[in-house]
Every structure is written in C-alpha cells, then in structure tokens.
Design brief:
The protein is of the alpha/beta class. The protein contains eight helices and seven strands; from the N terminus they run βαβααβαβαβαβααβ. It has one domain: NAD(P)-binding Rossmann-like Domain (Rossmann fold), CATH 3.40.50. A seven-stranded parallel β-sheet has the order 3-2-1-4-5-6-7, with helices on both faces. Helix 1 runs parallel beside helix 3, helix 1 packs across helix 8 and helix 5 runs parallel beside helix 6. This is Short-chain dehydrogenase.
C-alpha cells in the first residue's frame, strides 16, 4: 500500500497552544514571543502552584500576555494542572474555541523535582509520569483528533522539549525518555492527518534555576565556554514551525551548543 502524499504546510493555521508558560523568563515565554513575532495567535497554558512549588516563583503570565498582545496577536490564557487527565483535551478544546483550528502544539511543561533511585517516592514518580508523559500523550492525541484523515483539512506540527539528565534526577529523566519515544512515534502514526512531530533537547538553559556554581560548571562543558539562552530554543522552534523547517520530521534534535560532547 502506498503511503499518503504529504500535505503542504501553506494552509496550516497560524495558531498555537503552548504548555508550561507561567513565567516571563521561562522557555515557554521565549517561544511565545518568537511565535508572536511570526504572526501566531497563542493559547498559553500554565499552573501557578507548580511555579511556586518547583521553582519558588510566582507566575506572571498575565504580564506576558499583555506584552504579546502589544505585538498584535490574540492571546488566550488557559490555567490547568496537567496531572489531571481531563485537563489536556480540555485545553485543546478551549484553545480551538478561542482561536480556531490549531496549527501547532508546543509542550514546554514539566514536573522536575530532584531525587535519586533510593529516595524517589512513588507519589513523586507518579506525578512526573502523569505530567511529563501522560499529559503529553493526551495533548498530542487531542491535537491530532482535530484533523480528519483522508481530507484536505490542514495538519500541523507538534514539538516537545526534553532532557537527557537522569542521574540524581531519576523521575524527571526517566519520564523525559518516555516522552521522546511517544512524540517521535507521532510522525509515523499521524502522517495521514498531516501531523509532524519533533523533540528538542536544548541542554542546560538558565531560566532562573542556576546559581553561579552551576552556571560556570555548565559553561565549562560547552565548547566556547558559554551557555545558550531561552532565545536559542525559541529560534529553533520558530524554524521547525515554518515552511522552511517542515521537512524535518520525527527527529530528536540536540540544540545544546555541543554541551558535554567529547572531542574527536
């Protein structure tokens, strides 16, 4: 049986749902700014209690929304705890009702609490799995279901942020590995719906969680001795969502400046 002909990206809606966009200095915020500059209308998911619990910071997404609207785009704020399995499909529905059909889904959310093999609790592991893996699957599923296979309805692009840090960060790293597999499968399973998927590993990016010691250690492991910033992640996302980047599909992309890559 012949594979279906790939659909073009020209007609894909310039609307995007982004998850994990609670702080103006986070990766999600940088990506939102880049997509707003490219003419996307945006639905932004956040969960303020997680910003306080995990990062010790308050969500300031309302200020981000004002900033983005000043660029001329529509912005819909969608609070919700992704541990609840009812939330991911509800977010896709709410985003579509506010903005119309979605052309892009970018998952920036994560549960990330340091612990190791011997001291990780079942409760913590289960929350990591629910947020990092199950919610990502349900978001991608709902995103794909808006497109009927075998029709001329435009498809879309889904991108997920990942990490390869696992030692002493067990539930985070283990669930990020699972996330990689399920997202990359989407390029093959959802091709008849015109959906393409990729995963981005940006390496260590300081969004407020690094102290001077961590910052210096990470920079020392990067050729050139400097770290990337949130904009380096946003630039790649913008390219992958563009017509020029549409042929990159089903890839786990290292965009980390060569971090911890041995010479030779």
């Amino acid at each position: 049986m012949r594979s279906p002909a790939p659909r073009t990206d020209a007609a894909q809606p310039r609307t995007a749902l982004l998850t994990g966009v609670g702080r103006r200095r986070g990766l999600g915020a940088a990506i939102a700014r880049g997509l707003a500059a490219d003419g996307f209308d945006l639905a932004l998911n956040f969960h303020a209690p997680d910003d306080r619990r995990v990062l010790g910071e308050e969500a300031d997404v309302e200020l981000l929304a004002e900033e983005l609207r000043s660029l001329g785009c529509r912005v819909e704020l969608l609070p919700g705890d992704l541990e609840d399995p009812a939330v991911p499909p509800a977010l896709v529905t709410a985003a579509r009702e506010a903005l119309g059909p979605l052309g892009a889904l970018v998952t920036c959310h994560c549960e990330g609490v340091d612990s190791s093999i011997l001291d990780t609790t079942v409760e913590s592991f289960d929350r990591h799995y629910a947020v990092n893996v199950r919610a990502t699957w349900l978001l991608l599923k709902s995103f794909a279901e808006q497109v009927e296979p075998g029709t001329d309805t435009p498809g879309g692009a889904m991108l997920a942020l990942t990490s390869d840090h696992t030692a002493h960060n067990l539930p985070y790293g283990a669930t990020k590995g699972a996330l990689d597999r399920l997202v990359l499968a989407g390029t093959h399973e959802l091709a008849d719906r015109g959906i393409r998927t990729n995963v981005i590993n940006p390496g260590p990016i300081d969004t407020g969680w690094m102290d001077d010691e961590v910052r210096q250690a990470c920079a020392a492991q990067t050729p050139g001795g400097e770290l990337g910033g949130p904009d380096t992640v946003a630039d790649l996302v913008r390219f992958l969502l563009s017509a020029q980047g549409a042929w990159i599909r089903g890839q786990l992309l290292l965009s980390n400046g060569g971090f911890a890559t041995p010479a030779g």
